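Protein folding task:
====================
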Amino acid sequence: SYWGASSIDGHRSDLEVVPVGSLQRGKPALVQGIATTTKLCNATSEPATAHLKHETAAVMAPPCIGIDLGAAKTMVVGETGEIVRNELGGHSSASLVGFSGDERYVGEGAVAQLATNAKNTARIGERLHGRAEGGGFTAFYAGAETAIADDALAAALLRNVGSLANKTFGGVQATALVVPNAWEESQIATLARAAAAGLDGGVEFVKADSCLRLAYEKRHATNLEKDETRVVAFVDVGRCAASCVVCSFTQEESSILASEASTDGTYAGTAALDALVYDYLLIKLPKGVDKPVAGSKKGLRLLNACERLRVLLSTMDLAKVTCENLGEERDVPLELTRKELEEVCAPALKGLYHLLERAKMGAGMVVDAVELVGGGSRVCAVRNCAGEVFGTSTFGAKMDDASLAHGAALALATERDARKNVWLQREALVAAQSRSHENTKLLDEAKANLDKEEKAAAFKAQEAAAEKPENGDGDEAPVPAAEDAPESTLQIRVRVLSQKAEDLKADERKVTSALEQAADVADRAAKVLATRPETDAVELRKAEDAMCERDEGVRLVAEQRNALETCVLELRAAKNGSHYKLFEEKAVEFGDLLQAAEDWLWSDEASNADAIAQKKEQVLADAKALVPEYFAKVEAERLATEKELEKEAATATNEDDDDERREDRINADTRKLKFADRFRLVEKNKAEGTELFKDGNIHHAAKRYKDALGHASKLREYDLGPDDAAKTKKIKVDLHVNMALCWTKLQNNDQALKSAGEALALEPAHPKALYRRAALYEKTSKFDEAKADLKQVLKANEADKAALALMKRVDAQLARQKAKAKKMAAKMFA
């Protein structure tokens, strides 16, 4: 297993020193384990101690994470509570997988697909939660109708969010997936197969009720008084499920008193509420608007309008929305009141009411606080229902959308830490038994020596008595009593060692008791984890790996297609631009060249990224051969621009002007400004350059960056404190990197390399500077140098997609060079 221990009967832990957990985790098994430990100690304590150190080090790895694959969105949280953000910086990823043409979209990338291509977009979260309509999912993908199983869809989503977690934390030790309380074995098995195919490392499953308990315990139970007991009800209303968990918390422990979950789809979450509103609005549609078919595009538009109305009614009494294109080219206004929502959703709310009542009765204790979780908890009718059951109008605000995922991560971390404590207590027991064993040996040796000493003393006493003369009465002279003699050194040693033996036995009993307690804690932590179903997902994982490889290939092809299309558009624009006269003689041939390139781009040949890249180079070469005057003119203009920039740069970056007599070209002042004022000028010019760059004004952006460098050159690091010097160095590096990008855009590779080199001179491992230089080396066919820089980039971040893509191109070029050299060598020696 991922803890480094074996797995027996679904439990982790038949460990080498004390086999706690392979049996029913009771004291008899523990005592048996302690006896095993004693035998090990009598032989030698070193192997056990070494093993303990190894296992302890094994758990000091990257963090555990929890994943809550919800019906609408998926949350990923680390054990510390840090949320893993999606590609766009959001806190969650959409539980969607979409297909379009040859492309697959996962998570946030599929959100746009849901609006434009709903038929080929799978709501995998809803499918797992049992709300899939129409059986299996079929999408038009790669030119054919393809049936895709739910476990394959979930594997794609888990692979996506898992890679985001690895990128966030630099690796993941283990993953726990949240399992809704009402899920059946078949649903858990589907998720287990998906996890085995989509995630790396150990995967466990934690019930949602335990997740909520652990998250609350971690965040808030520590504020309780010593003898205080707090009973909290957690009402979780999500999109496809509703549940209620009642837990008790003290300073020492927490427990689940009652747990109820919806098993009837008629009141299972907000999707049921939206469905009821949908049916209600169908009746209220204006005349002339046909009722849309459920599942059609119009039906989905109306269902989305129902969801928007429900959300708006959480904050207002009357909500109005417009459903676009619901009729024939007609937008339909819709409105709903909060009272109407309560009346329409009465059947679902009644079911929720009974669910909460069962949880309350099952707890058997007065509920002190109510925490609402899930998107449905924002619906006023749901809040009123919970308030009526538990007799309150005030709800806690201590739980959020990340609580379930955080609780799952905490379940793993708690078990890991508990087992680590077991290992430490075992190590302490091994050491205590070793000390006791050594003391026993010394005591036995001392007792044996004392016995010899006493026998020798008795023998001498007898000899002395035999040699003594008798007294006048014929009796022997009296012998002094033994107890009157002082203690010998050996007697003192035996007494001290005997007392030490008792003390060591007491210590051993204490450590044994601590080990038993630690084992009990570890057992309780392990029981939180649900039993892992047996899965065989080898083929499913191979299929997902193949899909990911295909996705990368499609992405590279799209990237090269965009590059070729851009090249053709730029050349066509040049033909009609300011230098149009240079194209007049070859206008027809030049137009045919560009048209042929466009036609080729849509042919079957344009299916390989390398072929497209080669075609682009060929088009540029042919264009230069047709109108060499144009390219010469452009090159001359580029050189003139470069010369002008160099002249300005020489003025702006004159770092030898210690007295600052050089006229400031921006503010026309020669004063020695304070650091804050001068640094503000640097930042101002940098920001202006960035804005100009975004607008496509590369030439003027480069000027602003040069001005910023001119101001930065006046900030002498030896005159600054450590913090100011660090800020100055950082912004200089950023400016040089930006200048490298500007020079690249202006097609001046030499100056771009120079700017990248200046950035690396200040910070040798700067990833952007290394990447910029690697890209320039690729352009100038210095592939070995490019690969060396990319290795440094990937060493810092193995998941850098841009660097990986560039490395792939560089490796391909190196392979071509090697093959070409081999072929030429073969010809030479043929």
